[in-house]
Amino acid sequence: MGKKTAVVLLNLGGPDSKESIKPFLFNFFMDKNIIGAPKPIRWALAKYISIKRSKQEAGESYGELGDKSPLLENTNAQAVALQAKLPGHMKVFVSMRYWHPMSAQVIKEIKDWGAEKVLLLPLYPQFSTTTTNSSIEDWRKNSKTLGLDIPVSTICCYPWQEGFIAASASSIVTEYKRALAEMKKSPRILFSAHGLPEKVIKGGDPYQWQCEQSAEKIAARLEEKLGEKVDWQICYQSRVGPLKWIGPSTEEALQKAAQDGVSVLIYPHAFTQEHVETLVELDVEYREEAEKMGLKGYYRAQTVGVMDAFIDGLADMVNAYADQEGLRPDTGGRLCPKNFKQCAYDILAA
């Protein structure tokens, strides 16, 4: 019997009621990894943006989902599926960054359970300072404050993980075959990831590179499964604010497909469960934009969710790293090129 190990799934979180939309957004924009301004300025901006967006864009989007996010429910389903594949001395917990259950609450639960070790597992396959780094920093801060002084293992990223790649390819193949049957022509696959301001990437964040790596490996697996070349490109959704964002945007990719006269199959390869940015942004808003553009054929492959291959991949990483400490990707050693100065190995490995 191994040490009692708390396996903590890290995720973004989402509002659980109409009343929690504004405080959720405030927590999000108060994160220094999201808005890098000094704290008083950040507070004022977070207050303004959370009020404005809760009444407008975000409020409307969550309104499509019953005024709440399904992210926690879907993450809990992944936790249950993973728990079933782990040995009895391991227990899976869910910790959200911007809404409940947040790290302080989960740390108390882990202490009460009597954990002897913690293994942090982000549900973001690709590392970014704005997601995984933020969650791990927050976990470390609250662990220190609450006196959780036990060994910690951290899996920082897994953009190439076999289970993730296999599950992604399987999800796409299902829709690809449907699109081919209905349109009588192969669709263009758009790997749509959440975008980031260009300055974040120029600052050394490896997220865009890792997203491109995931897309390339999934596309290669698709070609193996389909026995043919596939038409694909990567694009980025959810652009907001005045800053220049990485591209091409999903809107631009849709417009290009409309001009080229091809149907599209969108796969959100930086998300591992369904939530507002897939169920509303992709399934409703971008679909409407595609129709206005005259695009013939709009398909969307589901996220990996609780697919066996993906959950098996998570379990493989947990079991492989259970007896070690420190930080690593699923490959066991640094996978980002050295020019990415915001790689987890540079900012979290200490």
Concise description?
The protein has 350 residues and is α/β, with parallel strands linked by helices. Helices cover 47% and strands 13% of the residues.
Protein architecture, described:
This protein is of the alpha/beta class and 350 residues long. The chain has two domains: 5-159 and 308-347, Rossmann fold; 162-300, Rossmann fold. The chain is built from 13 helices and nine strands. The mean pLDDT is 96.
Q: What keywords describe this structure?
A:
13 helices, 9 strands, 350 residues, Rossmann fold, globular, four-stranded parallel β-sheet
State the domain count: 2
CATH topology of the largest domain: Rossmann fold
**Fraction of helical residues:** 40-55%
- Strand content is 5-15%
> Whole-Å distance between the termini?
29 Å
Q: Please, how many helices?
A: 13
Overall geometry = globular
Topology record:
Elements: E1 5-11, H1 21-29, H2 39-55, H3 57-63, H4 71-83, E2 90-96, H5 103-113, E3 117-122, H6 132-146, E4 152-155, H7 162-183, E5 188-194, H8 198-202, H9 207-226, E6 232-237, H10 250-260, E7 264-267, H11 276-292, E8 298-300, H12 308-321, E9 326-328, H13 344-347
Parallel strand pairs: 1-2, 1-3, 3-4, 4-9, 5-6, 5-7, 7-8
Helix pairs in contact: 1-2, 2-3, 5-6, 7-9, 7-12
